[in-house]
Design brief:
The protein has 739 residues and is α+β, with helices and mostly antiparallel strands.
């Protein structure tokens, strides 16, 4: 895919009322039995239960807090959702979040706060740590994301772009293909030629649709307002079982928008592609047109995780409406899709009349998405279609006939209702459909290679080659394919296949039809060995004695370092014998042996430690694991320490100015004492430390303190053993206000 300057999209949706197309929506259900919504078995990879479960948790979390907005306005307007998304599997600190969801499969944390101000404070801290992997979940409006706010002048321009010949052709086709009231219409109808986009013929989809084999499949993910899934326009079995409603948290993403945007977009893909292409409908807008950054982010990740063939995004926003740091919300998802060779097709935006090119819109401005502009049936660029060097392709987008949300039988017109709309939102699904064909024919090619193939199929418009008005032009499959067929027999190492090569256009594809022939396998084992003091892995495998191809190769690991898990132990002086277990473990269940360097602290073969009564000191216990087939021998040393008993402070007074007197009970197990005095309870600053030798001393005066200040004091005993001081636990903290 060609590199370009950032640009994006917005999509313009507006009805263009064509003469006498739709007059009255009346008692139509008398003549039409609604199509029962069915879920098409998902193509390729099937439903992933963990993805479905976690996706529902995310949608539920956002819905739970959807109406908890803190509309402060001003510099806090950005934070009204009180929600932050952090792309990380290891959150260091949530900085006061009131609710949190860790979506492990999506690699993110969703943090909910109590107020916009708290959210702003937390965001600044999180942004310093996670940089671009952290964003505020902002409310997004479909009227902005789809650029629906066109003026009457825009509408007039769209209507003018449709010539009278276009209108007459549509009307004649409807008169010819329309279904009469007296006809039997108990079976769900299929759209006729007048009820589908004129882009179907213009882009040559008719030339390649029949070439799609029954056993070949693809999935187009449509991130939008959902779809009227019971609409007469659709073959209900085409809806993919992985379709999801991120608003209602279920698998029936019904279009409840007032404009039926998603239904119209899905209808274009439905008519431009054959039945083998399933529609993964991902609803991210509620009935009022509201969505959020995180919902669209999750939908993108969901489509990638479920291995969509192509992703359609007939949406986007103008970058100038957001902070500079907020123009890359979905970059990580787009990068993942690009790496997985999943094309992401985006409407280029409808900002031409506002002087806004593709570079102003996101995500179409990304150099890893495919941006699509709109043309009319005379191959002129639409008056509102955003242009620029970042524009990749043009496609039919003016006067596009497709599914009407709630469309039924129109008794007065004598036909089933459809809708005519215009905008880059309508152009985008045409290119999405084209890339579904390319992906089917060349499943192992990169997006860059598919992009070059699309360029080679383009009808060049405007200046020769790529230009800022039309991009590379519009894709046209101009060949009915006259295939030369070659059958290749299978061998031990390759499947048999049939190759099809078109002698006219060079298009080619391969269909595997027969399995490999049988091998004669013999099992071999190479044990791990030690060479020049270094262990080398062994190998277990099967090898065909005829062609020497291997299978079921399995590494036999050489012994690795063992890990002994054991911790240091601290005990307090006791008048009786103390017995406890080290609870040491190691990898692989190897046998452990123990040895102590102190006869007062001994350990047996089971790791049980016995401390002599009335003993203070420490011992180093050495733990050794024997070697096994998987692990080397290992050693670990832990220290067992027995400390003096806890000292009790009996009284703290201030006998005179700037002096504090501390009295404690004599500790008979001590060699001396350590006294801490501080103005802070945690002894973090302005702390005095006194070391007192001898156990008999039970009082000390601490002088040169500040008058009228509250001081804290604690004390502990120590015992000198073999020249090393072993400290007992601290006493309880006492306080005193100094005179």
């Amino acid at each position: 895919m060609r590199k370009r300057q950032p640009e994006i999209h917005g999509c313009q949706i507006r009805r263009i009322i064509v003469l006498l197309l739709i007059c009255i929506m009346g008692f139509v259900m008398v003549f039409h039995t609604p199509v029962k919504v069915q879920a098409k078995k998902s193509n390729g990879n099937g439903l992933n239960a963990e993805i479905q479960k976690e996706t529902k948790e995310i949608a539920s979390f956002v819905k739970k807090h959807w109406n908890h907005l803190d509309k402060k306005g001003g510099d806090l307007a950005k934070y009204e959702t009180c929600r932050i998304v952090v792309k990380s599997q290891n959150l260091q600190d949530d900085f006061g979040a009131s609710d949190c969801l860790h979506a492990e499969g999506y690699g993110e944390y969703i943090l909910q706060y109590s107020s916009a101000r708290e959210t702003k404070v937390a965001y600044k801290k999180l942004r310093k740590i996670y940089k671009k992997d952290c964003y505020v979940d902002q409310i997004l409006d479909a009227n902005v994301l789809m650029d629906l706010g066109e003026t009457q002048e825009d509408i007039t321009l769209q209507e003018d772009a449709m010539t009278q010949a276009d209108i007459t052709l549509q009307e004649d086709a409807m008169a010819q293909d329309g279904i009469g009231v007296e006809e039997d219409i108990t079976e769900a109808p299929r759209p006729t030629s007048s009820q589908i986009t004129w882009g179907y013929e213009t882009m040559g989809f008719a030339n390649v649709a029949a070439d799609w084999q029954e056993d070949e499949s693809a999935t187009v993910a449509i991130i939008d307002t959902g779809c009227d899934m019971g609409n007469w326009y659709f073959d209900a079995s085409r809806f993919d079982a992985r379709s999801f409603d991120f608003v209602e948290e279920d698998s029936i993403p019904q279009d409840e928008s007032s404009n039926g945007h998603g239904t119209h977009v899905a209808g274009i893909v439905s008519t431009c592609t054959p039945k083998q292409v399933s529609l993964m409908i991902l609803r991210v807008f509620d009935a009022s047109g509201g969505s959020s950054v995180s919902l669209i982010d999750t939908a993108l990740q969901y489509a990638i995780n479920n291995h969509a063939t192509v992703i359609n995004m007939s949406l986007g926003y103008e970058k100038s409406t957001l902070d500079e740091e907020d123009v890359d919300f979905w970059d990580e998802d787009i990068d993942q899709a690009y790496a997985a060779n999943i094309p992401v097709c985006c409407a280029s935006g409808n900002g031409a009349r506002k002087g806004k090119g593709v570079a102003y819109y996101y995500p179409a401005c990304s150099d890893k998405t495919i941006s699509v502009g709109s043309i009319d049936s005379d191959q002129n660029i639409a008056a509102t279609s955003s242009q620029g060097e970042a524009l990749d392709f043009s496609a039919p987008g003016v006067g596009i006939v497709s599914a009407l949300k709630g469309g039924t039988w129109d008794e007065e017109a004598g036909t089933w209702q459809t809708k005519i709309d215009s905008g880059t939102s309508m152009a985008c699904p045409h290119v999405t459909s084209a890339f579904a064909y390319l992906k089917k024919n060349y499943p192992n090619e990169t997006i860059s290679q598919l992009y070059d193939r699309a360029k080679a199929l383009c009808v060049d418009l405007g200046e020769t080659g790529h230009d800022a008005t039309f991009g590379n032009g519009y894709i046209h499959f101009n060949c009915t394919h006259q295939y030369q067929i070659q059958v290749v027999a299978p061998t031990h190492t390759t499947e048999g296949y049939t190759s099809y090569s078109c002698s006219l256009c060079g298009n080619s594809r391969i269909k595997y039809v027969t399995p490999k022939t049988a091998h004669h396998f013999i099992a071999y084992t190479i044990d791990p060995i030690q060479k020049n003091g270094v262990w080398q892995d062994g190998l277990r495998y099967e090898e065909c004695e005829e062609c020497h191809v291997r299978r079921n190769e399995e590494v036999i690991p050489a012994p690795v370092d063992n890990v002994i898990n054991a911790a240091n132990v601290v005990k307090t002086y006791s008048k009786v014998v103390q017995v406890f277990n080290l609870n040491a473990t190691c990898s692989g269940g190897a046998k452990l042996t123990y040895q102590s360097n102190n006869r007062n602290i001994v350990v047996n073969s089971a790791g049980q430690v016995t401390v002599k009564a009335k003993y203070i000191g420490e011992a180093v216990i050495t733990i050794i694991s024997s070697a096994t087939a998987e692990y080397k021998a290992a050693m670990k040393q832990v220290t067992v320490t027995v400390t003096p008993k806890k000292t009790t402070v009996s009284k703290v007074t201030s006998p005179k100015k700037r002096t504090m007197k501390v009295t404690w009970k004599k500790n008979t197990t001590a060699s001396g004492y350590q006294v801490y005095c501080s103005k802070t309870k945690k002894f973090t600053s302005n702390t005095k430390a006194l070391a007192l030798k001898g156990q008999k001393k039970v009082t000390v005066n601490i002088t040169k303190l500040k008058s009228k200040k509250k001081y804290y004091v604690k004390i502990r005993a120590y015992k000198t053993v073999s020249g090393k001081k072993i400290y007992g636990p601290w006493s309880a903290v006492k306080t005193c206000k100094v005179k």
